[in-house]
């Protein structure tokens, strides 16, 4: 009972068995043996059926509209993938979670890519990313009623939105500039001569 990929032949056997026996079984215990898949576990058969073989599952790549919907639902529901999957017809929680994790990995990778402002590809990040409450408001803004006083719903940004936020990008650039200045700043020696720190 290894962790081998499912072959098209195995998919066909499982699909035909379930169709022949009137749909999804109430107990998966005997399905591997009865379907001719004795090397597979009941759990593996159930997972394969529920994530790939059911008729109502759409295995095509996600459309741009679906990707935008996932991002919106993740902001609203957090990482409750099963709940999001129930709202998106034909998509499984695994598909949705895989898309989200790939998106986060892509955003993280973009932070460390080589660019004119980051010629060596070093990831410059603040030790902690400030949230809006830790940034002092301008005097004019502090005189205005807060959003909470106005009855407006305050929604936290997801990590993907924080990375694209203009303020954070500027903060990262400033930190990078200060770091580069510190590396190449001349410092006087004890004898008064100038040395470059590398």
Structure description:
With 198 residues, the chain is mainly alpha-helical. It is built from nine helices and two strands, in the order H-H-H-H-H-H-H-H-H-E-E. It has helices spanning 8-20, 31-34, 42-53, 64-77, 81-87, 93-111, 139-143, 159-164, 166-183, and strands at 186-188, 194-196. The protein has a two-stranded antiparallel sheet with strand order 1-2. A hairpin with a 5-residue loop joins strand 1 and strand 2. The chain starts with 7 loop residues before the first helix and ends with a strand. The mean pLDDT is 74.
Give a summary of the structure in a few sentences:
This protein is mainly α and about 200 residues long. About 50% of the residues lie in helices and about 5% in strands. The protein has a two-stranded antiparallel ribbon.
The percent range for helix content is 40-55%
Calculate the mean pLDDT score and round it. Answer: 74
**How do the strands line up in the largest sheet?**
1-2
Overall form: elongated
Distance between the termini: 56 Å
Q: Report the β-strand fraction as a percent range.
A: under 5%
- How would you sum up the major sheet? 2 strands, antiparallel
The string of secondary-structure elements, in order, is HHHHHHHHHEE
The number of helical elements comes to 9
Q: What does the radius of gyration come to?
A: 27 Å
Derived structural class: mainly alpha
Low-confidence runs of at least 5 consecutive residues: none
Number of strands: 2
């Amino acid at each position: 009972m290894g962790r081998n990929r499912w072959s098209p032949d195995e998919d066909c056997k499982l699909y035909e068995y379930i169709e022949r026996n009137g749909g999804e079984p109430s107990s998966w215990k005997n399905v591997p043996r009865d379907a001719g898949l004795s090397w597979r576990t009941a759990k593996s058969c159930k997972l394969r059926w529920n994530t790939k073989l059911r008729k109502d599952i759409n295995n095509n790549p996600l459309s741009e509209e679906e990707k935008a919907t996932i991002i919106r639902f993740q902001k609203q529901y957090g990482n409750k993938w099963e709940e999001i999957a129930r709202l998106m017809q034909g998509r499984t929680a695994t598909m949705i979670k895989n898309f989200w994790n790939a998106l986060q990995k892509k955003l993280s990778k973009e932070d460390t890519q080589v660019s004119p402002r980051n010629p060596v590809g070093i990831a410059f990040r603040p030790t902690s990313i400030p949230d809006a409450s830790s940034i002092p408001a301008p005097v004019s803004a502090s005189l205005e009623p807060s959003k909470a006083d106005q009855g407006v719903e305050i929604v936290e940004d997801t990590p993907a939105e924080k990375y694209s936020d203009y303020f954070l990008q500027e903060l990262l650039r400033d930190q990078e500039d200060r770091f580069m200045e510190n590396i190449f700043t001349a410092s006087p020696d004890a004898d008064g001569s100038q040395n470059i720190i590398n």
